[in-house]
Specification:
Chain lengths: ~110, ~170
Amino acid sequence: MGKHPITLDAVFHALADPTRRAVLGRLGRGSATVSELAEPFDMALPSFMKHISVLEKSHLVVSRKKGRVRTCALDRESLIAAERWFGEQHLLWQDRYSNLDTLLASIKGDDDEA
Amino acid sequence: MKPDLRFDFTADRATGTLTIAREFDGKRQLVWDCHTKQELLDRWFAPQGLTTKTKHMDFRDGGYWHYAMITPDGQHFWNRLDYQTVDPIDNYTARDGFCDEAGTVNPDMPRSEWTGTFTDASDRTLVTTVVRYASPDDLQKAIDMGMEGGMASTMERLDELLPLLATG
């Protein structure tokens, strides 16, 4: 199991909101404090913190508090795991179907000789 | 693969669905046979480097295919595909699952529903397979197992994913 097994329900919920997608996009350029993240949004801090909490529950984002400053960062491992798996499935089907191309060609070759 | 043979692979996380559409250079009856007869399936279904061995095949409504994908060092990965509906040579639906050598499905492992559709494309055949996981949790289990397996990956480029998240 991964260190932070993500549940997809939580991930979909996290990605469903434009504010949270923008926060993820910002964190993609590097970690940031909550006040830095909140700045572009016309939103009360408690409302914004709810978005951060959703992102943390989805395991897309991790945060750490030092003194009174909370810093957020992207949890790349969880995101990569999902993408990696889809990539592996893509390769599996590609590979399998390449075998089938070879088989079809050999069967058609037999027919030509018959 | 001929360069002009269509191959589309889409993954939709929101619905837990993979859609694989692939064109084959063969008539629909032949391509259908390759998907439904054990002696033909055994010649292509496992990815390269592995072999496929059928233990049981009964391709009809309520029947199942019980097979292993075998590594060069002899390790067997047993799978079972339970056919739910069969409509030759147009489509079939089936339920996929991991099992043991006796064919007993492991209920703790993720299962998916397969819908295979076969259509004519001039002299070729288009096969569309939709793999749908029973629940987001099942898909997540499959992803977690993939992580454990530590298989090779070509998709580690998170930087390509992030711009997509930032839009909209």
